[in-house]
Amino acid sequence: MVRTRLYRDGKVEREDLALEEIKGLLAEEGATVWIDYESPSDEDLSAMETILGLHRLAVEDALHDHQRPKLDRYRTHLFLAAYEATLEPGDGGLAVNEVKAFITRRALVTVHGPGFSADRLTERWDRETDVADHGVAFLLWGLIDLLVDGHFDVVQDLDERIEDLEDALFDDHSSDHDLQRRSFELRKALVRLRRVVLPMREVLNTVLRRDLDIADPAMQPFFQDVYDHVLRASDWTESLRDMVSSILETHVSIQGNRMNLVMKKLTSWAAIIAVPTAVTGFFGQNVPFLGFQSTLGLVLSLSLIVGGGVGLYVLFRRKEWI
């Protein structure tokens, strides 16, 4: 599936261009072309490689998934690999969609799978018509800004889920199994998000380099704003990972304290129960002793049982062991 747009002097002039037209349009002054491929074949990108003079290594990277977020520099173009991140409903797992882009002076070629919506990208561009006359720099900014905003939204959502987890941590009615499962799911999502977000700092640093001449002076503040968002998302992701680790450690500590409390209570009751056991064992001897085979012995043994048990109970209550 291929979508195309022709921008001229900051306005959308045409859509659904024929690929045969693109080479001629790129030679015209003030023309900028966007070409979008969804799940392209080798033949699709081979044709674009010929038209735009793309490097074969960049084309290979575009065809293969699981690239690290990066911005590679070639003689005639740049190659961008980045990820869109969203949280799946229900279990809160992190879903990522790989997006690649070839950046030339007058063309932006995006490559992605069916999970990425190009409509959201065109809506972003259509809302920012005041800077649309900056050509490829504008298109590239819209793409990166969309991806980074998605990262920021995911981080905010994860922060809210971690706050809910903190509340459940001290809830006596919450399930320990559920708490551990949610903690590990959040930690897994944060680890995966970190791999997506952190390399974007290098990408934006490269974009902002003046020797590459990607962002003209008018677009520099826009890319700098995206860079600030990347830094905030990166730092926030790191702090959330620490918070999840702290929640897990606190949960283990709470479990240990609860176990100690249970053991203390059981030990206290065992000590109380040991009193009648000891008394009845002593008075059960088949030898003469004070009160042997008399009412006095019964009263004495019962008094020792009740007095010893009550005394230990009062002592343990004062120490808050039971």
Q: What's the CATH H-level superfamily name of the largest domain? A: CorA soluble domain-like
Mean pLDDT over all positions: 86
What is the first-to-last residue Cα distance? 71 Å
Strand numbers in spatial order across the main sheet? 2-1-3-7-6-5-4
Low-confidence stretches: none
Provide the CATH top-level class of the largest domain.
Alpha Beta
Count of individual beta strands: 7
Fraction of residues in helix:
55-70%
The CATH topology label of the largest domain is: Beta Polymerase, domain 2
- DSSP helix count? 9
H/E order of the elements? EEHEHHEEEEHHHHHH
Radius of gyration, CA atoms, in whole angstroms: 35 Å
Structural class: alpha+beta
**Shape from CA axes?**
rod-shaped
Architecture of the largest domain in CATH?
2-Layer Sandwich
Tell me about the largest β-sheet: 7 strands, mixed
Q: Which band does the percent of strand residues land in? A: 15-25%
Number of domains: 2
GO molecular function, one term: cobalt ion binding
Family: Belongs to the CorA metal ion transporter (MIT) (TC 1.A.35) family.
Organism: Sinomonas atrocyanea
Main location: membrane
